[in-house]
Design brief:
mainly alpha; Cro/C1-type_HTH; Helix-turn-helix transcriptional regulator; DNA binding; about 5% strand; DNA-binding; about 70 residues
Length: about 70
Amino acid sequence: MRNDIRAMRTACGWSQAALAELLGVSRQTVNALETGRYDPSLPLAFRIARLFEVPIEQVFFADADDAPPSGGR
């Protein structure tokens, strides 16, 4: 799963540490989210979207690898 967390964070002028504090996670978790090494839990994904005041679909995007197999729904 891809995300726009880094771009959204920098647009707000927040450091990784500041975003981590607002979300109640570690700075390392924010770094892992931004680099795609960690997919958030559903509650954390909703907290992120709520914090940026956007729908969750504006933060997270499916990778080509996440697409259903051809013929699937």
